[in-house]
Task: inverse folding
């Protein structure tokens, strides 16, 4: 499985999305942790991190936690919801996605987002399904 996790981590690090996030990811069985160093571009008018980055961090960690469980095809996001706890000006965000259950072909993943002081700032829950996109055909996975 380590080869699969390495492929997923490589795929993330070279993704166009990561050009925006400039994040690091660590993937294991049913889990993913995403670390993002924030910058001024991510701030809203009152200098807090914009909620769009909360979504990107939580959904990305959840997406890779789900993908860690499937070795042949990529998953897709069927739905994703967020509960915002507080705003932050933190210079670092840590998103942790974790597999909860599989039900009727759906992979249910929860995620939590923390600031650099380990304060919980948001939670997310996603439902993911298998796609028809083979990993062997995905750029940067191999």
Result:
């Amino acid at each position: 499985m380590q080869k699969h996790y390495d492929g997923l981590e490589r795929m993330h690090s070279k993704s166009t999305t990561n050009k925006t996030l400039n994040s690091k990811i660590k993937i294991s069985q049913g889990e993913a942790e995403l670390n993002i160093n924030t910058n001024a571009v991510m701030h809203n008018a009152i200098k807090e991190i914009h909620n769009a980055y909360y979504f990107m961090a939580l959904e990305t960690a959840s997406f890779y936690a789900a993908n860690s469980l499937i070795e042949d095809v990529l998953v897709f996001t069927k739905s994703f919801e967020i509960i915002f706890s507080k705003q932050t000006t933190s210079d670092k965000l840590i998103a942790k996605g974790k597999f909860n259950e599989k039900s009727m072909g759906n992979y249910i993943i929860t995620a939590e987002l923390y600031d650099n002081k380990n304060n919980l700032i948001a939670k997310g829950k996603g439902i993911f399904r298998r796609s028809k996109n083979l990993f062997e055909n995905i750029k940067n996975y191999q």
Remarks:
- The chain has a mean pLDDT of 95.
- Residues 53 and 113 are 10 Å apart (CA to CA).
- The helical segments are 2-13, 16-21, 51-67.
- The chain is about 25% helix and 45% strand.
